[in-house]
TrEMBL record:
Record InterPro entries: PEP_carboxykinase_ATP, PEP_carboxykinase_C, PEP_carboxykinase_N, PEPCK_ATP_CS
Gene Ontology cellular-component terms listed: cytosol
Name of the protein in question: phosphoenolpyruvate carboxykinase (ATP)
CDD domains according to UniProt: PEPCK_ATP
Main localization category: cytoplasm
Protein keywords: ATP-binding, Cytoplasm, Decarboxylase, Gluconeogenesis, Lyase, Nucleotide-binding
EC number: 4.1.1.49
GO process annotations (BP): gluconeogenesis
Organism: Volvox africanus
Keyword Protein transport: no
HAMAP family: PEPCK_ATP (MF_00453)
Length: 578
């Protein structure tokens, strides 16, 4: 491997910084060299010199490998149970908060520090989260890899030289020793990967995964505790703003379109993934975006395409070794290829990344069963219910030939990051929506014309036309029809979208099969909701009952098997005029 002569190495920008500080004494770090807040150019040089498999692509991005883990490991995430915070947090079989005790946290922390102390150099990134000045927090990342430092430089809010000078002690520290494994025989752990968050120590420790998304979502998890405690609602959502200042939030699970649809040439981007809705409006938590790049095309996603340039980290992508041209269609390493870039790389970014109270919230679901309408209007109860459900359906199946859709439910469209009970976030959302007159919409970015294998994924062009119609006010004035089982309100017409695809039952050739698929999905929603039966303890019996009214009313499967489409449409409400 290529090695630079040491006199070409970047200056150790802040060599004495750690050794002298209160932080060094507290942390136990005793590094040989510390590179603090190096600019991207120097991080490139160090990554290229010391991190195998790292190269510059034809457009100047830094393409690198995250190692064995190429996605998050939610089952390896642990939250330390402390007497001070345990009563607020959501525990139990359906909660993402798997318990760890303080002593094990400290054991893992020691392991991480010991590992970092064996290295020739470590990287520190000091930066901020939360664009709202009143909510701003200081984050410190300590890591073994230049790639991680560049990633967090992109994803956090970058300090000015003056802010860096006066940074002081951080509010939260991430020790990323992901290049070194955890000991799987440690209590509370089952694998060589461990991602541990302690609210008491205000620290996160990462062992056994170099996937950079763990750091970003670690900070997000912290915000899912700190923000609601201040009455501010943290949300896994994209966000953009129209010319009239009208803000839209896009909720959705991974791959449903938050990043893709919030990048809109007509609407400046506030952020693509993590936001907070507070008393003054919304703000982005982050200073950058983390876009999926599988199948990326210049024609359909020009904003993201153009953001992939010098300074951008490309994770686990395939490229031609000679030309360094990236093959965005290749899944050779993973389907979850990613690009991380500062938000200002999106040409119409709205900086500072803050906005007013949302006028619209759009719940995205990629329904591979093809039974949910491409767009429907939700009542407040339905908005809460569907927000808590967090539904999407993926086409799983690596088995040749068999590719049945599988339903996924993830509370609040991001269960892995929740700290409190989902009903807490949902009722905060409903409060804010009713206070500010916010409209909610369910948009299916998945299959149309039949389920996966029969129909096809709705085109981005059609989804964009639907989003445009929400923003122009066209759907506010439309006439609506109610759907069976789910009771969703579907507009009869949307400009730029073929009318026949708006009501899925019209495009399914086998009506009885449509009925049983839709009804079956209704049952899956109902079953999933049993995970939240402890919710009344958090929001009260009345509110818990009200949330349930937003859900589907599936019929017994035998009834639908016998009477088919007739059974499900019998009890339908008439058309609701504009
Ligand atoms: N009709 C459609 N609407 C939205 N996205 C679509 C559509 N058809 C195809 N796609 C593709 O689906 C993917 C949506 O992914 P996107 O990056 O927006 O996910 P995300 O919601 O931001 O997820 P994550 O939280 O993991 O970042 C993109 O690759 C996009 O090109
Ligand atoms: O966090 C990640 O690794 C990518 C992402 O945005 C998500 O999964 O929601
Ligand atoms: Ca995204
Ligand atoms: Mn995300």
């Amino acid at each position: 491997m290529l090695r630079y002569a040491s006199d070409n190495m970047p200056a150790c920008a802040d060599g004495k910084f750690l050794m002298d500080s209160h932080f060094a004494k507290e942390s136990g770090l005793a590094p040989r060299q510390v590179f603090r807040n190096l600019p991207p150019s120097q991080l490139y040089e160090l990554a290229l010199a010391f991190e195998p498999g790292t190269h510059i692509t034809s457009t100047g991005a830094l393409a690198t490998l995250s190692g064995e883990k190429m996605g998050r490991s939610p089952k390896d995430k642990r939250i330390v149970r402390d007497p001070e915070t345990e009563k607020d947090l959501w525990w139990g079989p359906y909660s993402p908060n798997y318990v760890m005790d303080d002593r094990t946290f400290l054991t893992n922390r020691e392991r991480a520090i010991d590992y970092l102390n064996t290295l020739d150099r470590i990287f520190v990134v000091d930066a901020f989260v939360n664009w709202d000045p009143a909510s701003r927090l200081k984050i410190r990342v300590v890591t073994s890899r230049a790639y991680h430092a560049l990633f967090m430089h992109n994803m956090l809010i970058r300090p000015t030289p003056e802010e860096l000078e006066s940074f002081g002690e951080p509010d939260f520290v991430i020790y990323n020793a992901g290049a070194f494994p955890a000991n799987k025989y440690t209590n509370f752990m089952t694998s060589q990967t461990s991602i541990d968050l302690s609210l008491k120590h205000k620290e996160m420790v990462i062992l056994g995964t170099m996937y950079a998304g763990e750091m970003k979502k670690g900070v997000f998890t912290l915000m899912h505790y700190l923000m609601p405690m201040q009455g501010k609602l943290s949300l896994h959502s994209g966000c953009n703003v129209g010319a009239a200042g009208d803000v839209t939030l896009f909720f959705g699970l991974s791959g449903t379109g938050k990043t893709t649809l919030s990048a809109d040439p007509k609407r400046p981007l506030i952020g693509d993934d993590e936001h907070v809705w507070c008393d003054t409006g919304v703000f982005n938590i982050e200073g950058g975006c983390y876009a999926k790049c599988i199948g990326l095309k210049r024609e359909t996603e020009p904003e993201i395409w153009n953001a992939i340039r010098f300074g951008t980290v490309l994770e686990n992508v395939d490229y031609d070794p000679a030309t360094r041209l990236v093959d965005y269609d290749s899944q050779r390493l993973t389907e979850n290829t990613r690009a991380s870039y500062p938000i200002e790389y999106i040409s119409n970014a709205h900086i500072p990344c803050v906005g007013g109270h949302p006028k619209n919230v759009i719940l995205l679901a990629c329904d591979a069963f093809g039974v949910l309408p491409p767009v429907s209007r939700l009542t407040l109860e339905q908005a809460m219910y569907h927000f808590i459900s967090g539904y999407t359906a993926k086409v799983a199946g690596t088995e040749v030939g068999v590719k049945e859709p599988t339903a996924t439910f993830s509370a609040c469209f991001g269960s892995a990051f929740l700290m409190l009970h989902p009903y807490k976030y949902a009722t905060m959302l409903a409060d804010k929506m009713s206070h500010h007159g916010t409209r909610a919409w369910l948009v299916n970015t998945g299959w149309t014309g039949g389920k996966y294998g029969v129909g096809k994924r709705i085109s981005l062009q059609h989804t964009r036309a639907i989003i445009d119609a929400i923003h122009s006010g066209e759907l506010e004035r439309a006439a609506y029809v109610s759907t069976p089982i789910f009771g969703l309100q579907v507009p009869a017409q949307v400009t730029g979208v073929p009318a026949e695809i708006l009501s899925p039952e019209k495009v399914w050739s086998k009506k009885n099969e449509f009925a049983s698929t839709l009804n079956h999905l209704g049952h899956m929603f109902v079953n999933n909701f049993q995970c939240f039966s402890d919710g009344d303890a958090f929001v009260g019996v009345d509110m818990a009952a009200r949330i349930l009214t937003g859900g589907p009313s599936p019929l017994p499967e035998e009834v639908v098997a016998k009477t088919g489409f007739g059974a499900i449409t019998a009890a339908l409400a008439p058309t609701i005029p504009a």
